[in-house]
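FAQ
Q: What does a multi-component entry look like?
A: The components come first, one per line:
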Amino acid sequence: ELKVEQNPLFLSMQEGKNYTIYCNYSTTSDRLYWYRQDPGKSLESLFVLLSNGAVKQEGRLMASLDTKARLSTLHITAAVHDLSATYFCAVFQPNDMRFGAGTRLTVKP
Amino acid sequence: DAGITQSPRHKVTETGTPVTLRCHQTENHRYMYWYRQDPGHGLRLIHYSYGVKDTDKGEVSDGYSVSRSKTEDFLLTLESATSSQTSVYFCAIRPTGLNYGYTFGSGTRLTVV
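Then the predicted structure of the entire assembly, as tokens:
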């Protein structure tokens, strides 16, 4: 059974700092997603990573995928308050998408 | 999201009553999903559909049933609601093409008292 582990689960950062969220998964998959969720809101798709070594960047967020290590990272550069949200990774398997527990990120001034 | 709507947005119901949640899409996608979100668990798949009248169970399907009589509508029914089914329920569609993440509805917050 596919298991997806995110860490940390809670992250408090100061503005301007860098940090990385990790997503480990237990079985082979060819697709990994990152989502953002603001409190009380739905999930917003951030990145879709389709192959080993894939790297995607949007603004201060950069996601990468290492399928051999079964590891994806979401790197935050020079954090700003607007990035405060919960971030989920999700691993695709046929007819399902298995989510990590989420990382609640708080960026403080 | 503009292409997927859920109703109701909030519902409070009593233990033992049946409850139906509705998901409606306007984009004719084949795959639709129902997830529940609980603190510490991320989202967990309840049921999914891969076409009209084609549905299957997900990770946490006990106590739930679904129906899909039209491409655009996917219904989730709690046959006899229990307090453990208090949760936020999200419907999702899988867009065509590999480069797109799933699109989620706005969610239904269900409280069983």
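Q: Is there any commentary attached?
A: Sometimes. For this entry: Residues 4-108 of chain A form a domain with the Immunoglobulin-like fold (CATH 2.60.40.10).
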